[in-house]
Amino acid sequence: MKIDDNFFMKLAIDEAWKYQLLTYPNPAVGCVILKGNSEILSIEAHKEAGMPHAEINAIKEAYLKHENNSLLKTMKESHKIHKFIEKNHNGFFNDCTFYVTLEPCNHEGKTPSCAKLIAKIKPNKVVISIKDPNDLASGGIKTLEDAGIEVVTNVLKKEGLYLIEPFKQWNSNTFIFFKMAQTLNGSIDGKISNMMSQLYIHSLRDKIDLLMIGGNTVRTDKPKLDSRYVKGNNPDVLIYSKKKIFDQNIPLFKIPDRKVLISDDLFKLLDYKFVMVEGTYTLLNELRNKINYVLLVISPKVRKGLNSSLEELDLDFEIVHENYIGEEKIVFLKFK
Fold it and tell me: How would DSSP label each residue in 229-295?
């Protein structure tokens, strides 16, 4: 039976998108391990910088399907997982195919080399969406081929490039994404997102360097703009406004160890690597030439308060990816 590489690579890409932007400054990566022609052993992703890479999470999960009571179950640190698998794989992966969205890393950094571990456990084949654009980490394909493993590249290459775009951008410049929540009918008034989506947004705030918000929104909503739901870091804030006077009792000014800038100079964004903008379509339209991605949270509700500014805007997007957090849809968009 012929294996559909596109199908299994799509599973890996979809899994990686669940953690897109949360892996900063690392790329979002997914991995699927298939045993034989049909048994999916694992579908995993890299979830946070400094934590095990997608391939290691997938290898661990796959091995535990085989040895459910193994000591491996208690291991969370990459070096320990690597050493355990090297000693105990016993050829388990020899009839497996690995699907990885990005060329397995070849260098030793905070975590050991994924390519070198895969070369030692010798799966039958490794299918890769795109080569690693980072010269420091690249070379994994050669390591695998030198070990006698069949390597197939450029499977769903377009989708793989979309997945790694934030990583490429923040390694060379500033990556800016615009986050907005709305109901099915476009209402942006009041509290829209459920708790799961709020936890996701707070997790993003924990990763970014700067959060930008419009001055009118600050005056109207009086937000806190912290990451309290995940007890994370609180990013600096840029209030985009020509008027520089704000009520200092607004909660966002009360967060310790945070810089709050008030300016209409967009060049200040370039002082940071990873920027999230929270706002409405009006601000989105003003920043359209500076936004890399739009992250739209769509709640399955219909509410009064339709955004009237939509009547004055013509914006064309390409849907990059869609997934769900609970009942709410997360849509990643790019301007056409």
Answer: TTT----EEEEE-S-----TTSGGGG-TT--EEEES-GGGGGG-SEEEEE--HHHHHHTTTT-SEEE
